[in-house]
Write a structure and sequence with these properties.
Low-confidence stretches of chain A: none
Structural class of chain A: alpha/beta
Radius of gyration of chain A: 23 Å
Largest interface: A-B, 37 and 37 residues
Mean pLDDT of chain A: 90
Largest sheet of chain A: 8 strands, mixed
Shape of chain A: globular
Number of helices of chain A: 12
CATH architecture of one domain in chain A: 3-Layer(aba) Sandwich
Oligomer: homodimer
Strand order of the largest sheet of chain A: 3-6-2-1-9-11-12-10
CATH topology of one domain in chain A: Carbamate kinase
Distance between the termini of chain A: 35 Å
CATH superfamily of one domain in chain A: Acetylglutamate kinase-like
């Protein structure tokens, strides 16, 4: 008998028929003797409908009231899900974030979970109840309703799994697992049976939209075994996110190719190569609440250096304006911007113990005539910035050169 | 400066435009220096939409989960109303029933309010906030969400007014006050400037749908000054429900004519006139959870008596079946039923000190050839049961004979 947290997203509970299917799936796990906590999102479309109402009243809706409003979406789903379970003969009880209570900070619309009082949930589980918890929401210390931001239901599920020391946290989505890359770009992309937590973190941060990155971080921090499964196909084993590299013998060196077109590149040419210059460039950008991703500074020549960084594409014009304003102050020769770039990344814990991964990747790209504009590396990933028109080609080339189309067992 | 609780029902907040109008009205009161608590219902149609979802899942939805579900209706409205107020430059803060906290018993879908913790509301009012509270809902001692049953938002408003010792509780509806009778039946029907609490209670219990009877009872218990106003017309003074009869000189003897077609009549003929017979007849009816309204037993002749009572029309067939089953047991000659009846009532605290009201009413009906089937009286009302086809005629005749079409001042 295991304690399992199962999270179903908005598309999995989009209609009453799908909610009934969720209930049937939960009932089968329950019949196998498992204790089940179900975490659900709002029915697909409901959050946007509520946001639309708010925006008709206020261009920038009051954050506290916005949370009161949109949190009703999940509250509707928990009640309906509990009813569907009860109708199947199970005992079920729903909990809002406030009722649990999922204590968060008071950063409305993007709150962070501070603590979960799991006593009532555990008591209900011991009494044989299926517990249904509203994802995405909590309450601050003053009992104001808060929400965790888009995709926060994943985080709720992981946090509850951590609090209850669950045996597994299952995230049901519209894909059946984590793939070596996007199957829409590379037909031969393969579902991974396992992926390490660190790889998953890189994949998520690099634009693979299977899991919200905060939930992966949370799972890592509390070592919650996390599994991604399809909510529409029965019997699949999905992808398990593990914390062990012990099974390396069976693993590929590289797990996947991630990519995104979410960023834009800004280069400041010919700035004095002196201490504090990076802060003088990035300080005003940070002050404007613009997140910076990759940062590259070359070795200076003749006392001058070039400085490049990437920002979210939505912040590109704002960041360019800021840089043009500080250009003379920092004595830069020129500020260049490019929002037609793509970032492609090779991810895998195996590269820690293998040399030559970077050179293999660079050679493969060069053979296709793809120019690399920026490079950034970590222990388990290599990211390159290229012209966005080559993105799909680069992904296919890298997927093939690292033999990701081959089953892991054969490596 | 007064503390005013203003309640707006579902039709008053049915659309975003109407919510904006509510906000404008509240803002004007606030600008006059008043402290305002706004109590709102779900947007018209929303509660039924949610109930519909529940009933697609369960023929008899789980009551606890039903309350979790339908309470989202008011939660949406409080958030939107607070946003509309904020957009007008006011400070506003919303509260769910749980957040207030409005403590109720645990009778899901028909809970009763036990206590209201008004400390937070009062602190917000002192800080200049308009406080927006969800009607219709509360939480039991275990923090389960409860609802007060249909029309419960009126009760919430009155209960909060009582807890805060508000100067007035204003109920905004789609009519502009309490009328001497329904203007759709009697064109000359007149809005009452005041009505006593006891009269209002009779009017409400007799089918006048302006206020939910529980809220009137609550107002009476805590002596909350209650005013009924139109939410669509500006500047009206509506009808004030008072607790004083001191202004009797200016008052009509009779305040209004109430009526309904909600009931059906059952007569048990020729039952032995012995102790316990009423219980033998009504016991099985009560056991079947059927409410009985009027009960009449005539003086017995030759050791036999006739026994009549009325039930809600929806319970008529069930009640008849029960009576036919017990007929032989109680040695009754015959059981007769009639669901084509109407109850018409003359209501007024003035009749306490005036004789002849009953005879005036009976003569007026007799002159129109309307046969009276049952009569029941209280200190401030006379009700008669008649054939339903004469109902409108009876209402018009009684309205005229008691000069209700004349302004109160001229009496």
């Amino acid at each position: 008998m295991a304690l399992i947290v199962q999270k179903f997203g908005g598309t999995s509970v989009a209609t009453l028929e799908r909610i009934k299917n969720v209930a049937k799936r939960v009932a089968r796990f329950h019949a196998d003797g498992h204790q089940i906590v179900v975490v659900v999102s709002a029915m697909a479309g409901e959050t946007n409908r509520l946001l639309g109402l708010a925006r008709e009243l206020q261009a920038r809706p009051d954050p506290r009231e916005l949370d009161v409003l949109v949190s009703t979406g999940e509250q509707v789903t928990i009640a309906l899900t509990a009813m569907a379970l009860t109708e199947l003969g199970l005992r079920a009880r729903s909990y809002t974030g406030t009722q649990v209570k999922i204590l968060t900070d008071d950063a409305h619309t993007k709150a962070r979970i501070l603590n979960i009082d799991e006593a009532n949930l555990r008591a209900d589980l011991e009494d044989g109840y299926v517990v249904v918890v509203a994802g995405f929401q909590g309450a601050d210390a003053s009992n104001n309703i808060t929400t965790l931001g888009r995709g926060g239901s994943d985080t709720t599920a992981v946090a509850i799994a951590a609090a209850l020391k669950a045996d597994e946290c299952q995230i049901y989505t519209d894909v059946d697992g984590v793939y070596t890359t996007d199957p829409r770009i590379v037909e031969e992309a393969r579902r991974l049976k396992t992926i390490t937590f660190e790889e998953m973190l890189e994949m998520a941060s690099l634009g693979s939209k299977v899991l919200q990155i905060r939930s992966v971080e949370f799972a890592g921090k509390y070592r919650v075994p996390l599994r991604v499964l399809s909510s529409f196909e029965e019997g699949g084993e999905g992808t398990l996110i593990t914390f062990e590299e012990g099974t390396m013998m069976e693993r590929a060196i590289i797990s996947g190719i991630a990519f995104n077109k979410d960023e834009a590149k800004i280069t400041v040419l010919g700035v004095p190569d002196r201490p504090g210059i990076a802060y003088q460039i990035l300080g005003p950008v940070a002050d404007a609440n613009i997140d910076v991703d990759m940062i590259i500074q070359n070795v200076g020549v003749d006392g001058l250096t070039d400085f490049s960084f990437t920002v979210h594409r939505g912040d590109f014009h704002k960041a360019m304006e800021i840089l043009q304003q500080v250009q003379s102050h920092i004595c830069a020769r020129e500020v260049l911007g490019d929002d037609k770039i793509a970032k492609v990344s090779v991810v895998g814990v195996g590269m820690r113990s293998h040399v030559g991964i970077a050179s293999t990747a660079f050679r493969a790209l060069a053979e296709e005539g793809i120019n690399i504009q920026m490079i950034s590396t970590s222990e388990i990933k290599i990211s390159v910035v290229i012209d966005e028109k080559y993105m799909e080609l680069a992904v296919r080339v890298l997927h093939k050169v690292f033999e990701l189309d081959q089953p892991a067992e054969s490596v």
